[in-house]
Specification:
Elements lengths: L1 H20 L8 H11 L2 E9 L5 H17 L5 E6 L12 E7 L2 H7 L3 H10 L3 E10 L2
Antiparallel strand pairs: 1-3, 1-4, 2-3
Amino acid sequence: MKAFITLSTLIISITLMSFNSSKLINQSDIPLMKTLVHKDSLLRHVVLFKFKEGTSKKDIAKVEAAFSALPTKIPQIVGYEWGLNNSPEGLDKGFTHCFFLTFNSEKDRAIYLPHPDHKAFGAILSPHLDDVTVVDYWTK
């Protein structure tokens, strides 16, 4: 029995070492890794809204619904979520809504930006919008 436990421990140790060694990076692999990271990463499109003072809850709900409908209308959007600011830091500068879209490529984002459904959403939003901030980035 002692030999079995020793043998099992040895096999587990060798298996774990082989998994860990696969994580070691050879300097010559770094250019290849950068290509793969970019290829396998996702393009995030972050949109923050600040509504005009006095905008009704009903109008804000229309904007929320219209933005939330875009992923069903524009297939290039591969991920979508949104939420309301709840940061206790007080650094939001009046921005209350965050919308977070994901694209597989810059080409997909380029299709989304002038898309007729995106433009129609802009027409719903613009009468109520005080300010907007947009940040796009590739995930790492």
